[in-house]
Amino acid sequence: MTKEGLQSDTTRDRVLSTSAGLFCQHGYAGVSMRKIAESCDMKAGSLYYHFSSKDQILTEVLNMGIEKVHAAVAAALRESSVDVSASDRFRHAIAGHLHALLEYSSFTSANVRIFRQVPPSVQHSTLEVRRRYEALWDGFLGDLKSQGQLRNDVDIRSFRLMLIGALNATLEWFDPELGDITELANRYADMLANGIFAERCT
Amino acid sequence: MTKEGLQSDTTRDRVLSTSAGLFCQHGYAGVSMRKIAESCDMKAGSLYYHFSSKDQILTEVLNMGIEKVHAAVAAALRESSVDVSASDRFRHAIAGHLHALLEYSSFTSANVRIFRQVPPSVQHSTLEVRRRYEALWDGFLGDLKSQGQLRNDVDIRSFRLMLIGALNATLEWFDPELGDITELANRYADMLANGIFAERCT
DNA sequence: GTCTATACCGGGATAGAC
DNA sequence: GTCTATCCCGGTATAGAC
């Protein structure tokens, strides 16, 4: 890799990270190439040396967000596969999601907040990455169920949708500077695994 | 109320309902007064007879969304206060939220999707309505807890945030044309009240 | 690799005719 | 109550100098 290649990469990365923050704060249409450039101490025209369009920047931002979370959950499951109880693996997977979600929040909350308002072509180019992440959870939850760890009447897809929805919503109120993410994960895992009622009921 | 007053109200309502759909689909900045007008078979200038600005339209849309959900949950709690088990009241409250959320989805998903990307002045003017809704849930959950219906180690604010996050996320995938909202509510209420694990664990 | 300059389009809001 | 016309600003993207 050449020197020019490396330098180009770091400028690219700075643009992507800055854009992510702007997209999640102002929405797709609320972010202009001029504003992205200004936040990077550049001029708008220069961005087109690195990216062919605003939509290309957006696509890369969205995919990076999902990939960060996917990698964190996959690692959590890999590192706790033997000699670990089902509830601990569940807890670790949730902690992986929340840590990546809240620590790369510019990239991840761009996904959560603006996915439905970006052009269909951009939505389409992130679908595969999204499906792979859903499949990771469905696989894990399916394993738990076939081991008899889950109640038989729990539908895995419904639960996965509820779980990811609940976790992603923490972006709207949790501040990693003020609270402990691991503790948050433990609370959520406990409520989701055991429920909140004193007595289980039908 | 005069005839003119009534006619003005229906035009206002048409504009609000159309705008809600556009805002939740395209985001705050992605919706122009010209597009709102076009979707209402009007011209942009005419909108300013009914509203003083784009932000005023947005503010009314956001508040209407929360108020619809608030009213539905309040009604569900009112109608099931006597002779109804705690888990049934819980179920009914969740059903109230989901029914209003998904049936007035233009107004409600404008809230869920774009609240963080609207101008701070608009955010501010919806805060009171949002707080009142949170207080409704905190009151109900606090009652359940003081009656001993909830586990002692469950934190009400954490659970309320998790609950509302999980419910609101259904906007992103549930289609009321294809599925039964009451059944969805029952599934969610069951998973949240009882947990998903076969055996409760620490 | 970044700049300036520019083409072309569309934004919110207002004024005043009808 | 709705229209047209207009003001002024800012959008994406390109061309070509440096």
Can you give me a brief rundown of this structure?
Two copies of one chain form a homodimer. With 202 residues, chain A is mainly alpha-helical.
Q: How are the SSEs ordered, and which strands pair?
A:
The structure is a homodimer of 202-residue chains.
Chain A: H1 3-26, H2 33-39, H3 44-50, H4 54-79, H5 86-103, H6 105-114, H7 120-146, H8 156-168, H9 181-194
The structure holds a DNA duplex (18 and 18 nucleotides).
Describe this structure in words.
2 copies of one chain form a homodimer. Chain A is mainly alpha-helical and 202 residues long. Helix content of chain A is 72%, strand content 0%. Chain A has helices at 3-26, 33-39, 44-50, 54-79, 86-103, 105-114, 120-146, 156-168, 181-194. In chain A, helix 1 (3-26) crosses helix 6 (105-114). The longest helix of chain A has 27 residues, at 120-146. Chain A is elongated and about 60 Å long. The N and C termini of chain A lie far apart (62 Å). Chains A and B meet through helix 1, helix 5, helix 8 and helix 9 of A and helix 1, helix 5, helix 8 and helix 9 of B. Chain A binds a DNA duplex (18 and 18 nucleotides) through residues 4, 7-8, 11, 29, 32-34, 42-46, 48-50, 53-54.
